[in-house]
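Weekly modeling sync, notes
Attendees: S.R. (lead), two postdocs, one rotation student

Agenda item 3: backlog of single-chain predictions. S.R. asked that every request posted to the team notebook include the full sequence so nobody has to chase files. The rotation student volunteered to paste the first one in as an example of the format we agreed on. Action items at the bottom.

Example entry:
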Amino acid sequence: MQSVKNLTEGPIRKQLFQLAIPIMGTSFVQMAYSLTDMAWVGRLGSKSVAAIGAVGILTWMLQSFSLLNKVGSEVTVGQAIGSGSQEEAKAYAAHNLTIALIMSLVWGGLFFSFAVPVVSLYKLSPDISAKAVEYLRIVSTAFPFVFLSSAFTGIHNAAGLSKIPFYISSAGLVLNMLLDPLFILGLGWGTAGAAYATWLSECAVILLFVYQLKVRNKLWSSFRFFVPLKWSYALKVIRIGLPVALLNSFFAVINMLMGRTASVYGGHYGLVALTTGGQIEAIAWNTSQGFSTALSAFTAQNFAAKKRSRIEAAYRATLMMTSVFGLFCTFLFVFYGSEIFSLVIHEKAAYMSGGVFLRIDGYSMMFMMLEITMQGLFYGVGRTMPPAIVSVTFNTLRVPLAVLLGTVGLGINGVWWAISISSILKGLVLFVWYRTLQKKMWRN
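Predicted structure, as returned to the notebook:
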């Protein structure tokens, strides 16, 4: 039987790396699903890329709700393990899975039913809209796989077993990479083929998680995936996870509005730059997010065990590592943005437009690293509201700022500067907020 890992003792940096590297790998794998789809669909032309890019923003909004149970698992299960209560950890794990399934069925049904009016928000041409609607309806039926996978990942991260989600997600990615060229080009299914490949891959991931827990290596004996909800457990999961889910889903809504703004100022090339550029930026995001999630799981156990010095040492180590990576990303995006973009989209007008996006966005990389590191600290101590407030406030600022900068003569570049400026402000404000609340958190 696979046992949980105690993070309240032992070498801090080693534990952070052992947690973070598989988490980063899992994040890269999840990001690679979209990039693989875009790379193969890119052979069909920029209009097909615009269609799945538009849907990518919509599904991002819905998948953001799955973070309720990913973070909910990482914090509630992690704190239960840190306090020495394995039965409570099992109960929280089962509640997170049950809530994830309920939410996925509701949201998947809504997006399938209202695909046409939702896609129409982008004001795309009829041929692009038709492809986007077809793609959205297929992937919406896979939402239960996405939500449950997120909860399973959080449970394993909380137990210090972050390698397991990485291996399972990697297997799903390999399957997706094999099916994409077959379905998209070989069978001639186009954008729908990308959706079917993703659907089957995500289904395979869930089957592997079930096999891992029920047949191969159990985390706990007699563990039930789904249970009747007890409000004492469910409310704590929702209280901790909901702010994270709301801030990320709201971020996706803002990105949807930014996508429409980019389409107004830059046509479908502007939308391609935003959506595909966002996927490329996710390389930096997911790297720092891996360390942030590791810091969150580490903090959750040590906060419950009242080991403040270990948390502070882990925070300093995480901030140093993410800062170095932030500088590296700034260099790549600012000086080689177009070249990086051309690896995904081969149409010159598209990758030149995307290169400008990456260059302007590159100036905010260090501050994005700061924001995500601070999120890990806040989540680990169970205070998920401050990051949510900061994110909602400054992401909301993006839309009017983009319109303002666009109308004063910057055009599509004004949209990119609105994104970069708001990212800088988020990192600075969240850092100041944590330093202000630091003593109060430990008194409580």
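Discussion: group reviewed the output briefly. The CA atoms of residues 400 and 422 lie 11 Å apart.
Action items: rotation student to repeat for the remaining queue; S.R. to check formatting next week.
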